[in-house]
Design a protein that fits this description.
- The complex is a heterodimer.
- By secondary structure, chain A is an alpha+beta fold.
- Chain A has three domains: 2-189; 251-336, Orthogonal Bundle (Helix Hairpins); 345-490, Histidine kinase-like ATPase, C-terminal domain (Heat Shock Protein 90, 2-Layer Sandwich), CATH 3.30.565.10.
- In chain A, 51% of the residues lie in helices and 14% in strands.
- A five-stranded antiparallel beta sheet of chain A has the order 2-1-5-4-3.
- In chain A, a hairpin with a 2-residue loop joins strand 3 (158-162) and strand 4 (165-171).
- Chain A is rod-shaped, with a radius of gyration of 56 Å.
- Helix content of chain B is 42%, strand content 22%.
- Chain B folds into two domains: 2-118, Rossmann fold (3-Layer(aba) Sandwich), CATH 3.40.50.2300; 125-215, Arc Repressor Mutant, subunit A (Orthogonal Bundle), CATH 1.10.10.10.
- In chain B, helix 6 (151-162) packs across helix 8 (186-200).
- The chains are: A alpha+beta, B alpha/beta.
- At the A-B interface, helix 7 and helix 8 of A face helix 1 of B.
């Protein structure tokens, strides 16, 4: 069932059910209260009339027993009320043998609200008196009346309800039975209207609740729809997609923001990876071109030995260049993956710097570049081989990009618990717009290949090594003023 | 046919130049952008092979400046194969585009194609009277029989055929048949012309005295 798998539908069903229960409970209670109120009013009226009838017969009800007096009107008996239909010959009922005081009689009849009626029977269960609107067949009322007896006396008057009519029956101690009844048709009608109103109200509230809930749930879940459609597009390969969420403050809005920043980082990482792969492929294209053209040209016809030798040498140079590139790429990949394990040993930093200077001295002599060094004796903790690699790389650059008969200056100082190494040259320097990018992979300030020795990865590797030591490396030096590279490494004392 | 190659990788430059010379082209070389532009502007090459990444001025810049004065067909060499690079190259005025690494055969074919297009020819076959020149196979036939020509002679015939109906000056012929390494002895051209006349009929190349040569 797809519907039951949808959060929206499940929520809707759940609170729909709760709403129906609450509304039904409320409606039934309200109806009951109203019904009780209505009937109690009628009952009170009936009760009052019974009391008055009893008084008219024998004085106050439940008074001290008077003994049998059934055929004798009470002392304060007054002339009988005018019963318009009464006394007609042929009436199968016995004519009343007593008359009611007019103010009591006025309480009964068809023109009184609820059409109150009464009927009185003597102890032999014979008709004694009744109002003219009393039902013809009133046995049903009398059979429901309590039997005469001491137990029943306590309970009387007893409320009974038959059909549309509500009545009280009271058995007097003297043996007469009085019933007073009323039509509750108006009350029942009112109650029907009330029930309809309650049902209508409940229906409207239910519809409003469901529609409002549907809208609200839809609105609350909209970011989820948005998130899933965006995630689908991203998984299809379009990494530039972002979740468009207006509700930044809600829980889902925050989720969307977190996902968006994740997507952004994913895209950046992906773009970098792509750029890196494309750069690496680009770097490999030129040496492969050399090998292809050299071999194709050599094989196109018979050559002499010297010419084959030239071809093989060119191919070897190309292969060396590719090997260097591949080694550098793998080295960087190991740093990226955090797989490069650095040694941690205490060593003489100033000594490995002067050793590095010795290593590049031949190259400097060839270019007639002079190296000046001012080194404070300093010991640090780290991987001496890796740091030697950094220093020789920086020195090689400083010599390579220097002017003939230029200078390279090396200074090592201790500053704020850092070992600060500065290597400066007197070359053309690095253009200001290139400065922030010199450590980027394959970035070359002069935008061209500068022979097989330069893979464009040297400074990236230096940066990776220095950062793995918890240090920093930066480049400075504007146009024509020579480049300055500064390496800062933590030096604990 | 005279071609300029501008490429900074020395091994690539030397092998390309050698291979093109062996194909019968006269080849000049430059290993940086500034020399490349200087040569390209100073000589009427039949085609230029231009690398994009160069020290000094890069390939784009050379192309942009060259297009202000010359329509020389340019074949760009590049290590970038992204569409936007290709679009940029062609939009800047390059006639064709080859991505490294490439096969020599492809370079040859593309060079023939851009040279042919610049001469408004659509096929490799040029027919002039009873002479047929297949520029792809580098074979010249006279009366349906293949004729043995030296590389230089073939270049002379091909160049004249591509400029069919025009008067070609001796200077033009010198420029297009000999590169900067050749010693340009002035009678060398006359020797080639007379050899071609022997092989393809005396009427094939007509001398316009005071102007130059003409075929057809």
């Amino acid at each position: 069932m797809k519907i039951f798998n949808s959060i929206k539908w499940r929520l809707q069903l759940w609170y729909g059910l709760i709403l129906v229960c609450v509304l039904a409970g409320f409606g039934v209670t309200a109806y009951q209260l109203e019904r009780n109120r209505q009937f109690r009013r009628v009952d009170d009226e009936i009760h009052r009339r019974i009391g008055m009838l009893g008084q008219a017969l024998h004085g106050p009800p439940h008074g001290p027993p008077h003994g049998p007096q059934q055929n004798h009107p009470p002392d304060d008996f007054r002339p009988p009320p005018e019963f318009p239909d009464d006394g007609m010959p042929g009436d199968d009922r016995q004519p009343p043998r007593f008359t009611l005081p007019p103010q009591v009689a006025a309480l009964f009849g068809t023109d009184v609200p609820n059409q109150f009626f009464f009927a009185i029977r003597n102890r032999d269960n014979n008709e004694f008196a009744h109002s003219d609107n009393a039902p013809q067949n009133d046995d049903v009322f009398f059979t429901n009346a309590p039997a005469n007896g001491p137990d029943n006396l306590k309970k009387s008057p007893q409320l009974l309800r038959v059909g549309d009519e509500s009545f009280f029956a009271e058995s007097l101690p003297s043996g007469e039975k009085i019933i007073v009844g009323a039509s509750v048709a108006p009350e029942l009608y009112d109650l029907k209207i009330t029930a309809l109103k309650l049902a209508g109200f409940g229906g409207v509230v239910l519809v409003l609740g469901l529609v409002g809930g549907w809208w609200f749930v839809g609105r609350a879940l909209r970011p989820i729809t948005e998130i899933s459609s965006t995630a689908a597009k991203i998984s299809a390969g379009d990494l530039s997609q972002r979740i468009n969420s207006e509700e930044a403050e809600s829980e889902l809005g925050r989720l969307a923001a977190v996902l968006n920043s994740t997507f952004a980082r994913l895209e950046t990482a992906f773009a970098q990876q792509k750029q890196f792969a494309s750069d690496a492929a680009h770097e490999l294209r030129t040496p492969v071109s050399v090998i292809l053209t050299q071999t194709q040209s050599a094989l196109s016809r018979e050559r002499d030995g010297a010419s084959y030798r030239q071809t093989v040498e060119a191919c070897q140079r190309a292969a060396q260049r590719m090997r260097k590139l591949i080694e550098s790429l793998l080295e960087l990949a190991r740093f990226d993956a955090g797989q490069e394990v650095l040694k941690r040993m205490d060593f003489d930093y100033s000594k490995i710097i002067s050793d590095s200077v010795e290593m590049v001295q031949t190259m400097a002599d060839e270019k007639q570049v002079k190296i000046f060094s001012g080194l404070e004796p300093l010991r640090i903790t780290g991987d001496p081989e890796r740091l030697t690699q950094v220093i020789t790389n920086l020195l090689t650059n400083a010599i390579q990009y220097n002017k003939p008969e230029g200078e390279v200056r090396i200074a090592l100082k201790y500053e704020n618990s850092l070992a600060v190494l500065k290597i400066s040259d007197t070359g053309k320097g690095i253009a200001l717009e290139d400065l922030p990018r010199v450590f980027e992979r394959f970035y070359r300030a002069d935008k061209s290949r500068t022979g097989a020795g330069n893979s464009g990865l040297g400074l990236s590797i230096c940066k990776a090594i220095v950062e793995a030591h918890g240090g920093t490396i930066e480049a400075a030096g504007g146009n024509e003023s020579g480049a300055i590279f500064t390496v800062r490494l933590p030096a604990g004392f | 046919m005279r071609i300029l190659i501008v490429e900074d990788e020395p091994d690539l430059l030397s092998s390309l130049a050698q291979a093109l010379r062996e194909e019968g082209y006269a080849v000049d070389t430059a290993d940086n952008g500034d020399d490349g532009l200087f040569n390209a502007e100073g000589t009427d090459y039949d085609a230029i092979v231009l690398d994009v990444m160069l020290p000094g001025m890069d390939g784009w810049e050379i192309l942009k400046r060259l297009r202000k004065t010359k329509k020389t067909p340019v074949l760009m060499l590049t290590a970038r194969d992204q569409t936007r690079d290709r679009v940029r190259g062609l939009d800047t005025g390059a006639d064709d585009y080859v991505v490294k690494p490439f096969d020599l055969e492809e370079i040859f074919a593309r060079l023939r194609a851009i040279i042919r297009r610049s001469a408004n020819k659509t096929t490799n076959l040029i027919e002039i009277g009873e002479v047929t020149i297949d520029t792809a196979a580098r074979i010249v036939s006279f009366k349906d029989k293949p004729v043995e020509l030296t590389a230089r002679e073939y270049s002379l015939v091909e160049f004249m055929a591509l400029h069919h109906g025009e008067v070609v000056t001796r200077t033009q012929l010198y420029e297009h048949l000999f590169d900067e390494n050749d010693s340009t002895m002035s009678n060398l051209l006359d020797v080639h012309v007379s050899n071609v006349r022997k092989k393809l009929g005396a009427e094939f190349i007509v001398t316009r005295r005071g102007h130059g040569y003409c075929i057809g």
